[in-house]
Amino acid sequence: MKLLQLEHIEFDVTVENKDALFTYLANKLYDLNRVTGANEIKEALLKREKDISTGVGDGIGIPHTKDSSVLFPTVLYLRLKEVVPYEALDGISVKDVFCIVMPTSYNKEHLVILSKIAQALLDETKAKLIRTEENKEVVFEALKKEIMSVWN
Known about the structure:
Elements: E1 9-13, H1 18-31, H2 38-51, E2 55-57, E3 60-61, E4 64-66, E5 74-84, E6 94-102, H3 109-122, H4 124-132, H5 136-148
Parallel strand pairs: 1-5, 3-6, 4-6
Antiparallel strand pairs: 2-3, 5-6
Pfam families: PTS_EIIA_2
Protein name: PTS system fructose-specific transporter subunit IIA
InterPro entries: PTrfase/Anion_transptr (IPR016152), PTS_EIIA_type-2_dom (IPR002178), PTS_SugarTrans_NitroReg (IPR051541)
């Protein structure tokens, strides 16, 4: 199973709040058969979130975790229809969400993927393409190029 697939990307997602966002992510992961249970992965994401917010700034959230409920390493990208309060480090509500989940057998791979996403988003041209392009296939190819450069 590939880390990132076209169906892992969604635009105009509507959620009311951060809890609803995490429920949406968990259900999406479950529906894609990437985890054994939606409740388990949601709890794992929330547990990680309690340590420190994964709202990294500039309207971007990168919730990530390793958990035994994860069947396959996965990256999701959601572009929200409206911003959601997220307790981000800069206080800005989140509109773009990159979710990274890994099985517990993976050591630091999720941090490498997180780093590659962060690097891409620091590049103004790449960030604009990923965050504003309306063609899902174009966004998929851009993300794939960034992430897959470190993932075999």
